[in-house]
């Protein structure tokens, strides 16, 4: 080798090699420390910054009416929130964000400042909802701002009430956090809300998601089908409002129930509220939480006589024909004021007592039966017990215990209570309780459970619907059917000949009972009444029970509540397609009915004056008005083609004026009428030109 | 000088190519998310550029391998590249007023002149030591050399302290092995230390990285009145915030890899958590995806290259070849070990690429050039 290696240099080169080797060993040691010894810690640290748990929102269940039309549905939306503490320049933030969301910059800036000021005092929260339920365009605009500002777009859901105010008190409403605060929304909140699931997401440092997997399935909210019938409900609301205004009442309530099953077909209160308002207007705030039909018992007054008379007959002490002396209007009681009747009656039979609504009569029935029996029958009718309807804050009514535990016990009947309870004083019942009590009579002696939910189903993750059984207490037999039948007949007479005449339903037989309890407040009688009407129709096989209560009305009984009862019951019977069982005596004959017969009423022929120019309907309705009564009869062209129409009219020698083409749809004059001389038949075809 | 038989060192070649291939895979894995999310480009963009640079670098490497390295032992080959490099380094301070590191070439990307300095300096050192073996310790030669090396280091250190430290590694190694007098050696080390401290204080981000490496994070400094003088220096910059973020994320990456790793492409830290995941901190992704086994294999690969290069010190025919090989392996190994130490939080954070692995065209080409020089020596060595 021409250039021998310097031995010292070689040793130093070996030293360099050793240094590198030792350094490498240190790296290996460090790798062991990090990757083997501390491995678990770093896996945890990595997971804590990479993996995030997201909530899979559960969609709130829907509330559907009987015909599956939606009463309350949830729509997924998004909302924008910000942590005000992290906004450095509220004015700048607001000036950019607010226009993108269609808000006023000053408002947003002020809100943020307020929160920041509160934050400095230590009571602030790092959360400000800027706008809820943003639109798609707003969302697009925000996407551009995401890099500039720190704000959050949160999953949200908006509750829609497609039918507006219809069944507001039944459906209820929800608060800003999506929990029900009234009605079914509140009572069945847990079921409706479902349970949110959990999802793990692998997130990058920029909150960009890469991989996600579900760790817990979400439980969707239960969809409820209600027994509410949309049409009956709507009309009940309309007629109640009319009734309340006509009777000068402050409040009112209507309950329509199927007596056989206890399904509530309609339930409404006045005043009502708009469930679409997340924060109620001042006028609505009280109404939202006062479902009078369920929550507020009032003295039923004479309505209670139904129960007293039922007791009298069911126990066998009385028959409908049993004569009761009604003391000519004043029943003197020892050491007390006498019991008065509105009208003076001498002797009435038991049916007459109910028909004429004699306080003295029922008081005597009650006296004869004794308090124990009355209490027992009140309980049979469900007075003083919650009905178990699926609405919040249900009142059990007012019914004191019959037996006193001690002398100091005030929450019990006095020795004279049963005289007054017999005609509905010292007792309180809600409209739903009254509806249940009437149902006992209407359905032949069964105590049913009033309920609103007739179907439950839950959407499953695979898209199918899972049916959930609805548990309803089976009806309990509390009375003999014969008694109920007897009472129904008496109650029918209440409407026909007694106090309930304004409640008569044209075309249907109906039974009912009026009631009016004067309101005693602040130590004085107010000359204001809780007037109610309870009833059912038709009498032989009642399909519908209607309870109407007008609160604080100056009018009494059926005058206040009867018209509303009549109209609501009429709608309900029509919607339920109940056949009419009575002649409609008070209905004036209508045109189309006349048209059915070709014979003209002889006696009216001469009365009518000739009217040469008539509209189609009038011509159709009153063909006798034509001066030429022996003309040709108009054939029926409807449904025929134009060729057929022309051929037929040519054969008959009639002039036809055609409009459009296609099939004949309408014709003027109507078929069957007599064509005036020289007149043309106008035929409208399906395709207009 | 007689011409010797050319015998390719296939072991060295294979080792280098394996590391390079592994590096391309890792760049693809580590850069795909960054490319897509941060730069809105195709996910293979960075990997493709790296492949292009690798092909160019391999071409240069093969050319150097064929070329007899002894041709380089001529002042022209030494000084012309050296002066070009110095010019480029001065130029970059003006061209890149912020970081003093990169030339931006439209259409091609960035170009880092300090990378060129590595092979150029290695050649210069080898030439100098081989030429002036006898007078290495003479004042008349050591001073100009110190000026050249020092000047180069200063120029680089102005913008890129990490590369400057790496530049010094072959210099110190070569001089040490060549037998520089102890007093010069100690003097150099002291000088380097003083300059290093100066450079560290020059930029707050360097300062906080060093202090937080020793446990003095920004919080501690701001709280303790003892460190007010440091706080004053740090307050001038925003870059000081969360200085231990990078080593912490790197440790999470390596640590969560465990023994076997999460599997190629499975890294989660590269989703924006680990800064510079495809460049200076790519070893973190290596640790996370291939685990302890992969890291040790990679380290073994570097040590293998180091050993193949170091043995040339004995096998090379003449001093120039010896010191050229020594300088080459010194610069390669120092980079590799230092980068790993930074990622494993054993050294303060410095921007040093992992040779043959980290993304970066100029660095890869220069590394392959260095390996080309090494192979040129190796092919012509005896035994």
Describe the 3D structure.
The complex is a heterodimer of chains A (689) and B (383). Chain A has 689 residues and is of the alpha+beta class. Chain A has three domains: 54-225, Alpha-Beta Complex (Penicillin-binding protein 2a (Domain 2)); 230-275 and 285-406 and 418-577, 3-Layer(aba) Sandwich (Beta-lactamase); 627-686, Trypsin Inhibitor V, Chain A, CATH 3.30.10. Chain A has 22 helices and 26 strands. In chain A, the strands form eight sheets. In chain A, strands 2, 3, 4, 5, 10, 18 and 19 form a seven-stranded mixed β-sheet that branches. A five-stranded antiparallel β-sheet of chain A has the order 12-11-23-22-21, with helices on both faces. Chain A has a three-stranded antiparallel β-sheet with strand order 1-8-9. The longest helix of chain A is centred in the first third of the chain and has 31 residues, at 7-37. Chain A is extended and about 145 Å long. Chain A starts with 6 loop residues before the first helix and ends with a strand. Chain B has helices at residues 10-38, 45-66, 75-95, 113-131, 139-159, 161-178, 182-202, 204-213, 218-223, 228-234, 245-257, 282-310, 312-315, 319-343, 361-379; strands spanning 103-105, 109-111. Helix content of chain B is 69%, strand content 2%. Chain B has one domain. Chain B has 383 residues and is an all-alpha fold. Chain B is built from 15 helices and two strands. The mean pLDDT of chain B is 85. In chain B, helix 1 packs antiparallel against helix 2 (45-66). The chains are: A alpha+beta (689), B mainly alpha (383). The interface between A and B is large, with 41 and 47 residues.
């Amino acid at each position: 080798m021409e250039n021998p290696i310097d031995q010292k240099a070689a040793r130093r080169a070996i030293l360099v090699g050793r240094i590198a080797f030792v350094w490498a060993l240190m790296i290996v040691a460090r790798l062991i420390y990090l990757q083997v010894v501390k491995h678990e810690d770093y896996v945890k640290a990595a997971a804590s910054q990479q993996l995030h748990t997201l909530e899979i929102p559960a969609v709130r269940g829907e509330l559907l009416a009987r015909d599956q039309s939606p009463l309350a549905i949830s729509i997924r939306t998004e909302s924008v929130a910000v942590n005000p503490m992290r906004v450095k320049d509220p004015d700048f933030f607001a000036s950019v964000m607010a226009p993108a969301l269609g808000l006023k910059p000053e408002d947003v800036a002020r809100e943020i400042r307020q929160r920041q000021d509160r934050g400095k005092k230590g009571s602030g929260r790092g959360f400000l909802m800027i706008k809820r339920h943003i639109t798609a365009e707003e969302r697009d605009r925000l996407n551009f701002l995401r890099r500039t500002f720190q704000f959050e777009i949160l999953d949200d859901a908006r509750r829609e009430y497609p039918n507006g105010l219809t069944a507001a008190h039944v459906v209820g409403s929800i608060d800003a956090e999506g929990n029900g605060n009234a009605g079914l929304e509140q009572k069945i909140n847990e079921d409706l809300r479902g349970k949110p699931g959990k999802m793990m997401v692998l997130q990058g440092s920029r909150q960009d998601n890469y991989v996600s997997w579900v760790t817990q399935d979400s439980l969707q909210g239960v969809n409820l089908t209600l027994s509410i019938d949309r049409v009956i409900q709507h009309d009940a609301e309309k007629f109640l409002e009319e009734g309340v205004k006509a009777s000068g009442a402050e409040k009112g309530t209507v309950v329509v129930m199927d007596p056989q099953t206890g399904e509530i077909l309609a339930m409404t209160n006045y005043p009502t509220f708009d469930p679409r308002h997340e924060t109620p207007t001042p006028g609505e705030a009280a109404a939202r939480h006062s479902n009078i039909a369920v929550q507020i018992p009032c003295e039923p007054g004479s309505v209670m006589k139904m129960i007293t008379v039922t007791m009298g007959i069911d126990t066998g002490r009385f028959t409908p024909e049993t004569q009761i002396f009604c003391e000519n209007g004043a029943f003197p009681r020892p050491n007390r004021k006498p019991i008065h009747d509105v009208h003076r009656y001498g002797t009435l039979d038991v049916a007459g007592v109910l028909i004429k609504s004699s306080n003295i009569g029922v008081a005597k029935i009650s006296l004869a039966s004794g308090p124990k029996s009355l209490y027992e029958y009140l309980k049979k009718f469900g007075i003083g017990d919650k009905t178990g309807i699926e609405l919040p804050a249900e009142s059990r009514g007012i019914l004191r215990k019959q037996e006193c535990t001690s002398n100091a016990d005030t929450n019990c009947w006095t020795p004279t209570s049963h005289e007054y309870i017999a005609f509905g004083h010292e007792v309180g019942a809600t409209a739903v309780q009254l509806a249940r009590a009437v149902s006992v009579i209407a359905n032949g002696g069964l105590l049913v459970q009033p309920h609103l939910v007739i179907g439950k189903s839950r959407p499953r993750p695979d898209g199918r619907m899972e049916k959930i059984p609805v548990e309803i207490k089976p009806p309990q037999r509390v009375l003999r059917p014969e008694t109920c039948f007897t009472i129904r007949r008496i109650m029918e007479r209440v409407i026909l000949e007694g106090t309930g005449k304004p409640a008569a339903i044209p075309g249907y037989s109906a039974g009912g009972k009026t009631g009016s309890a004067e309101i005693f407040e602040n130590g004085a009688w107010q000359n204001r009444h809780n007037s109610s009407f309870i009833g059912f129709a038709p009498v032989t096989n009642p399909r519908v029970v209607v309870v109407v209560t007008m609160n604080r009305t100056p009018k009494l009984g059926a005058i206040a509540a009867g018209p509303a009862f009549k109209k609501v019951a009429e709608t309900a019977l029509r919607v339920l397609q109940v056949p009419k069982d009575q002649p409609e005596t008070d209905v004036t004959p209508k045109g189309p009915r006349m048209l059915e017969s070709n014979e003209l009423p002889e006696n009216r022929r001469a009365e009518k004056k000739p009217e040469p120019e008539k509209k189609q309907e009038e011509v159709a309705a009153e063909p006798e008005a034509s001066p030429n009564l022996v003309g040709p009869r108009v054939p029926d062209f409807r449904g025929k083609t134009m060729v057929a129409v022309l051929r037929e009219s040519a054969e008959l020698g009639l002039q036809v004026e055609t409009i459009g083409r296609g099939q004949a749809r309408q014709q003027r004059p109507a078929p069957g009428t007599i064509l005036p001389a020289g007149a043309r038949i106008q035929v409208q075809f399906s395709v207009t030109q | 000088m007689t011409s010797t038989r050319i015998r390719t060192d296939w072991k060295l070649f294979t080792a280098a190519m394996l590391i390079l291939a592994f590096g391309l895979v890792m760049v693809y894995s580590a850069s795909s998310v960054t490319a897509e999310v941060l730069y809105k480009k195709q996910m293979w963009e960075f990997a493709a550029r790296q492949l292009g640079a690798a092909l160019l670098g391999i071409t240069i490497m093969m050319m150097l391998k064929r070329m007899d390295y002894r041709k380089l032992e001529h002042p022209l080959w030494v000084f012309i590249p050296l002066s070009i490099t110095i010019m480029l380094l001065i130029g970059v301070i003006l061209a890149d007023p912020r970081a003093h590191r990169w030339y931006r070439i439209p259409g091609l990307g960035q170009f880092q002149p300090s990378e060129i300095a590595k092979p150029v300096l290695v050649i210069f050192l080898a030439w100098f030591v081989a030429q002036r073996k006898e007078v290495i310790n003479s004042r008349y030669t050591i001073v100009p050399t110190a000026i050249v090396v020092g000047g180069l280091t200063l120029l680089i250190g102005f913008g890129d302290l990490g590369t400057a430290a790496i530049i010094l590694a072959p210099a110190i190694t070569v001089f040490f092995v060549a037998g520089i007098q102890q007093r010069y050696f100690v003097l150099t080390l002291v000088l380097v230390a003083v300059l290093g401290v100066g450079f560290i204080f020059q930029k707050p981000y360097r300062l906080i990285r060093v202090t937080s490496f020793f446990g003095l994070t920004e919080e501690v400094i701001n709280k303790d009145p003892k460190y007010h003088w440091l706080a004053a220096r740090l307050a001038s910059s925003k870059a000081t915030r969360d200085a231990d973020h990078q080593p912490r994320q790197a440790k999470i990456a390596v640590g969560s890899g465990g023994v076997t790793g999460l599997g190629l492409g499975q890294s989660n830290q590269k989703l924006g958590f680990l800064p510079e995941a495809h460049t200076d901190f790519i070893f973190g992704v290596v640790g996370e995806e291939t685990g302890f086994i992969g890291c040790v294999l990679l380290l073994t690969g570097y040590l293998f290259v180091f050993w193949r290069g170091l043995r040339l010190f004995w096998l090379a025919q003449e001093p120039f070849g010896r010191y050229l090989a020594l300088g080459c392996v010194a610069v390669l190994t120092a980079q590799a070990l230092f980068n790993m130490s930074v990622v494993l939080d054993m050294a303060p954070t410095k921007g040093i690429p992992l040779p043959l692995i980290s993304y970066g065209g100029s660095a890869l080409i220069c590394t392959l050039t260095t390996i080309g020089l090494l192979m040129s020596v190796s092919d012509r060595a005896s035994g």
